[in-house]
Write a structure and sequence with these properties.
Blueprint: E1 12-15, H1 21-36, E2 40-45, H2 55-70, E3 75-79, H3 86-96, E4 101-105, H4 111-117, H5 120-127, E5 132-136, E6 154-161, E7 164-168, E8 175-183, E9 192-198, E10 201-208, E11 211-212, H6 215-223
Parallel strand pairs: 1-2, 1-4, 2-3, 4-5
Antiparallel strand pairs: 6-7, 6-8, 8-9, 9-10, 10-11
Helix pairs in contact: 1-2, 3-5
């Protein structure tokens, strides 16, 4: 990431939230940034800490990370455990990165919610007056076919024993990596996926009967990061 851009007077921020529309927004942002030859940033904000993300949420974050690398964006910003209103966070990020264009998805908000709570777009306009907004209409979320494959994620750890890595649920001095384990539904054993941040990238390994299924591929992920 970080390829030099010629139009430093413009800078684009794509704000994504969970659902199939995030990828569409990122692709729109990439198209605009390519035309304008300017920096591109992606932001996602969540009030929950990373270790409380479910399998669906973490899968979206992982996909956005892949797109960020594919499109050579300047930075993919993940702000978890964020208690401030989203508009405040977006304002801060926009200021820090000299953003001039912000892309957001049209929120699925009822008329009653707009009357009682106010339009999120209007809140943004009040908070951020120095940028241009691009509101992209989005399709209603389609249920992911993999959504019900895993149980709710739990904090877990990888411990190395001889040449294998085992998933454990108690913190000990022998822990190598900390992350979230998503157990496959309908299995009595610890089969599933273990997800964790490696630097600024989300990584994952498959677990089969408590053990990392492919230790060679597991080590290769760290070598590439």
């Amino acid at each position: 990431m970080g390829t030099a851009k010629s139009r430093m007077d413009e800078s684009i921020l794509v704000c994504v939230y969970y659902g199939p529309n995030g990828e569409r927004l990122i692709r729109r942002g990439h198209k605009m940034a390519t035309i304008m030859d300017c920096p591109l940033y992606i932001l996602t904000v969540d009030p929950l800490p990373f270790d409380e993300f479910d399998a669906e949420k973490s899968a979206y974050v992982e996909r956005w990370q892949e797109l960020a690398e594919e499109f050579d964006v300047d930075e993919f910003i993940v702000l978890d455990n964020e208690k401030r209103p989203s508009a405040k966070v977006i304002k801060q990020v926009a200021h820090e990165h000299n953003i001039t264009q912000i892309i957001i998805g049209q929120t699925a908000q009822s008329r009653w919610e707009e009357i009682t709570k106010g339009s999120f777009m209007n809140v943004l306009l009040r908070e951020i007056s120095f940028v241009d907004f691009h509101v992209v209409s989005v399709d209603r979320s389609v249920k992911d076919e993999n959504e019900d494959l895993y149980e709710k994620g739990v904090r877990a750890y990888l411990v190395k024993e001889n040449s294998d890595f085992y998933v454990k649920f108690t913190l000990t001095k022998n822990v190598e990596y900390e992350g979230i384990f998503f157990k496959e539904i309908g299995t009595d054993f610890n089969n599933g996926i273990f997800k964790f941040f490696c630097g600024h990238k989300m990584c994952q390994v498959h677990i089969a009967d408590d053990i990392v299924a492919d230790p060679i591929q597991f080590k290769k992920q760290f070598k590439n990061n």
